[in-house]
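pls ignore typos typing on phone
magnesium ion + seq
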Amino acid sequence: MRAENIYKSFGEGKNRVNVLNGINLELRPGESLTILGASGVGKSTLLHILGTLERPSSGKIYYKEEELTAKDENKLAEFRNRTIGFVFQFHHLLPEFSALENAMMPALIQGMSREEAAAKAEVILREVGLGDRFSHKPGELSGGEQQRVAVARSLILDPPLILADEPTGNLDAKTGEGIEELLLRFNREKGIALLIVTHNERLTKKMSRCILLKEGKVAS
Ligand SMILES: Nc1ncnc2c1ncn2[C@@H]1O[C@H](COP(=O)(O)OP(=O)(O)O)[C@@H](O)[C@H]1O
Ligand SMILES: [Mg+2]
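k done
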């Protein structure tokens, strides 16, 4: 995935805020990249733009030479479903549904049969260490377990890329480290490219590359 000369501003006139001021960035297949930067610097904005959840004010995003910024919303939804697993700070699990059903959701949305989706969800929930929690609802799981379900959900369709926005921001240090280790394991063992936005400088040592956002640009 490649970002070329990305600018993003919000608001109009004197309320205008320029958040991203010419970002160039590449994430290669199988690579692990951390984005560091102060709160409010535009990390989430950049991740949303890379993930095609939001459009840049100007600049282009490419995936394998395909220009994503030229595609319409339907095409982008399809692209995301196929290509990107998202993990956010808050897990956004559906409270009425079990861990298994939550993990199945992207597969069901894609039109996979219930049986096939459930079988895939069982495999992936075991891989994230929740083999004994299939029928638990989010409210019956710890914060770390909830985030593991969110990781399972992000991986159910075997995306080549995971985008994680402060995935441990809401967890204590030890639980958070477990989630990071899990994401890194999928990166190492399955070659899934991994981009993590984090405050945790310790994590950056385990990742292949790190960039620092400052004043809307890549500072280092
Ligand atoms: N939808 C929006 N409308 C207006 N301003 C926004 C919007 N999203 C983000 N911003 C502003 O952009 C800046 C960067 O936000 P964000 O990307 O969330 O930062 P970070 O993730 O680094 O903490 C902030 O000043 C924020 O207020
Ligand atoms: Mg953020």
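The beta strands are 2-10, 17-26, 32-36, 58-63, 66-67, 84-87, 161-165, 193-197, 209-214, 217-218. The chain has one domain: 2-218. more later
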